[in-house]
Amino acid sequence: MSTLLWIMFATLIVSLLSLLGVVTLALSDRLLKKVLLALVGLAAGTLIGGAFLHLIPEALHEFEHHASHDTLFIFVLVGFVIFFILEKLLWRHCHDKECKIHTFAYINLVGDGIHNFIDGLIIAAGFLASVEIGLITTLAVAVHEIPQEIGDFGVLVHGGFAKKKALMFNLLTALTALIGGLIGFFLIPELGEFQIYIIPIAAGGFIYIAAADLVPELHKERRVSRTVLAFSMFIVGIFLMWLVKFLFEGGIH
Description:
Strand content: under 5%
């Protein structure tokens, strides 16, 4: 399969996750919050695991022939800062159906569209590095998207959208990942040597999302049983990233 087809397939799968919002219609608020907390823990673990077990090691390998390791970690920090600025200016993550941060549903749609576009760029950068890194990046992005898309669907309904209309608009904004993937495929190779910096920037973004958005959500839970569940899913996410790395490196036949 060509790199472009990999990117299109991966971004399409991630985009279709927006349809998961419809499951909230069949869940009670109590069960929904419990499910979302577990998913947030899993997402945080996969993002942290993806950054430290896959993206940064891949970047270290690439930097051996182009720049120093100090430069690599500077670009990890750059990615962290970029995602901080983007979130501060354009959107806020929310994993609660009744989230009051999203004052206007339309603003949420714009922010979500930009977010998904950036996800597409990151996925494209991953596949341009290698199929392995592309798949790992897609998996980390996908697991992170599940709680967000469920939350965003709830925000749109809470903001006044009819359920079918909310589902349609959520899907449309999710499809911007395809556009990001296409632009990334054609643009990143034109950056020449600079394209090696995309992976550490993405790693910094993963670390930011996990540390600044997802882990704080886990700290809000006071019940011991739910806290243990969320932490367990966090560890599962990290283990999943390690297992995929182990499988790709031929440790299991």
